[in-house]
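Need residues for this backbone.
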């Protein structure tokens, strides 16, 4: 039995989102983002800790831009959610570009390598 693309756990201060498996298309990335937003809305979460350390990202770095364009078009409510993302070192180039494009477009997303650091930053956000 394989895990779903993401699993969720509602914590005291945030929604923990854990990514599983492989993402090798923009469509998979967007479908997952839709699942995450839906869960955030269901749980009235304004903060999310996205743990993508177990996720294998096989999309081009330029798709980070396309993902954020999709947020603008289809998921504007993401602008009301603060996101801390935790990534493995080998995915940091993709993650950093995702963070940069998101910030330019008005989303609050910060990328980390360390889970505790990400959690601390997230909980401190207003």
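Answer:
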């Amino acid at each position: 039995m394989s895990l779903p693309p993401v699993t969720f756990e509602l914590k005291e201060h945030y929604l923990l989102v854990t990514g599983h498996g492989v993402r090798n298309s923009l469509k998979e990335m967007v479908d997952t983002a839709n699942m995450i937003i839906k869960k955030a809305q269901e749980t009235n979460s304004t903060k999310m800790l996205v743990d993508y350390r177990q996720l294998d990202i096989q999309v081009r770095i330029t798709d980070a831009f396309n993902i954020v364009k999709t947020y603008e078009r289809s998921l504007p409510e993401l602008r009301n959610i603060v996101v801390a993302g935790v990534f493995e070192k080998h995915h940091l180039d993709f993650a950093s570009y995702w963070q940069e494009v998101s910030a330019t477009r008005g989303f609050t997303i910060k990328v980390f390598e360390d889970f505790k650091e990400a959690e601390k930053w997230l909980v401190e956000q207003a």
